[in-house]
Amino acid sequence: xxxMTKTNTAEIFKDGDxxxxxxxxxxxxxxxxxxxxxxRVILMGEDIGVYGGAFQVTGDLVHKHGEDRVIDTPIxxxxxxxxxxxxxxxxLRPIFEFQFSDFAMLAMEQICNxxxxxxxxxxxxxxxxxxxxxxxxxxxxAAAQHSQSLEAWLAHVPGLKVIQPATPYDAKGMLLAALExxxxxxxxxxxxxxxxKGMVPKGHYTVPIGKAEIRREGTDVTIVATSIMVHKSLDAxxxxxxxxxxxxxxxLKTIRPIDRETVLASVRKTSRLVCVYxxxxxxGIGAEISAMVAESDAFDYLDAPILRLGxxxxxxxxxxxxxxxAVPQIDDIVVGVTQLVKxxx
Amino acid sequence: MTKEKKANVPFAISNYSPEQLREALRKMIxxxxxxxxAEDCYTRGLIHGTMHLSxxxxxxxxxxxxxxxxxxxxxxxxxxxxHCVAKGAEASRMFAEFFGKxxxxxxxxxxxxxxADVEMGNLGANGIVAGGIPIAVGAALTxxxxxxxxxxxxxxGDGANNEGAFHESLNMASIWNLPVVFICENNKYGMSTSIxxxxxxxxxxxxxxxxxxxxxxxxxxxxxxxxxxVTIAVERARAGDGPSLVESLTxxxxxxxxxxxxxxxxxxxxxxxxxxxxxxRLSAVLQEHSxxxxxxxxxxxxxxxxxxxxxxxxxxxxxxxxxxxxxxDVYTELTS
Lengths: 345, 336
Description:
Shape of chain B: globular
Strand order of the largest sheet of chain A: 3-2-4-5-7-6-12
CATH class of chain B: Alpha Beta
Strand content of chain A: 15-25%
Radius of gyration of chain A: 20 Å
Largest sheet of chain B: 5 strands, parallel
Oligomer: heterodimer
Order of helices and strands of chain B: HHHEHHHEHEEEHHEHEHHH
Structural class of chain B: alpha/beta
CATH class of the largest domain in chain A: Alpha Beta
Distance between the termini of chain B: 51 Å
Largest sheet of chain A: 7 strands, mixed
Helix content of chain A: 25-40%
Distance between the termini of chain A: 31 Å
Order of helices and strands of chain A: EHEHEHEHHEHEHEEEEHEEHEHEHH
CATH superfamily of the largest domain in chain A: Thiamin diphosphate (ThDP)-binding fold, Pyr/PP domains
CATH topology of the largest domain in chain A: Rossmann fold
Number of helices of chain A: 12
Number of strands of chain A: 14
Helix content of chain B: 40-55%
Largest interface: A-B, 43 and 49 residues
């Protein structure tokens, strides 16, 4: 997609150990490795078997691993998620795919009341190592009920971990890390990223949950971005460089728990903060990052107000131009950052 | 069925040893006295929050769990004290939980509504109506997939039979042929709304046919009847023949929770059901078959009373959690 194929984490692998894959293929590779290595792993979801998943993420895995392990569920999001929670609490390692993240709203009871709280309510006597995958985001013309970015809803619930890998490399490595995590991990995958390509190590590796990554170093402004907005921010940063603005771009990767130190250290260095995310701006992850900075010593380093660029306060519209207008675009980031750095905001 | 049913001899009498039957009666008395003790502690301000008492429903919990092996698992409900005792929990650690103490089953983090004893196979009560039903199906999926041989008993009330989670779960348990037994303890009211006003079918067990599984309605105040129905269902599940739905007709003598003013039912109705006291009924049957004497029942009562008094003392004297630990166990602490 852009220069992100050469990230600092990827450099630990030799070229011969890497292979180019799409984001969806990288997830499938991780699922395949998990199913092969651990008999406790099962996949559950709607049409993930012979159909291969609505976004062809599971692909042909059912043919390799069988219907007992790549399980087509009925269209029963609440019950299906609950079965995954119960299975996780009793010894399996289920990976549950919601066909669209929007449909997970039918399962909020099991996610938020059960999976998130079971360990705490039971005094630490049980773990719920369930992994749930949420295809999210706009840009497909699927309108208001198939295009949302709801990750902040889940990130508000203690007991859950919420991640948003932005690259094929992280999609695979963070999924494998999620499987090793004893607690429920919610993975939000932007649908537009599924076809994006990048170099991915062969075999098993993990990318840590809770650790952000500086995708591009800079000195004038810190852009904290999530998921697809990491790519848009990097493209914006290139344009900004041409007009003499040096932007540092942080890929947050995990929104619960947030990598506080990476963000604060960057803000101390650049003295300016911009948060870019596709989800509705109001009461979102940008508010949390902004407050985190405002409550810390990094606040004293700020030379400009904090800027949040998030989704408009609207359902995602159908009309393609309106759809674009509802979420931050590269130009919005360029304009916003330029005004901020020039003291025009 | 392990033994032939003899004419006029109740299932429980012919299928369980005198020791097992006396233990069943002791557990029912323990549940009754436990809940009376808990209610008393609540009234005296020693326990805060709320609680949902199952007084009057003891045969349903004990009779169902009698059908299980120790390794089998249950999921329970907000009215779950009886299930917890029936599955083998200790009154002392249950009281400690109600008192919010570190020695409680949930270290004081769960209270009455989340009482669990994972070691004994009780995966927990649940504060959400029907919340435990998909979880039970998940536990059954684990048992089948890992060939653990465990059967999962899934308790829920009549109120849960109109939740989507109930229908989705029964459907999945059926299509995947899982070793789970659904036990609906129909105590006639979902909080204040009667089953007649809330539910389109006459018997909740009628719902079973929609999911191609056996469904049966039994007198849940008759220990023998409930243990017979659940035994059949458990044996079926263990043999790999899939799930069943058992409807256990019973009644809670107390209100829904501590805020209930009983405005939706009559004193006469409550009194009629108190005449069907499951403990008195089992006591009579056991005496009739010379399995226990009145004197031995009195001895059980005395011993249970002491057990409850000791349990409350244990709870009162147990340490409270440290306030520094308020976020402990939100996540698993990784030691690496």
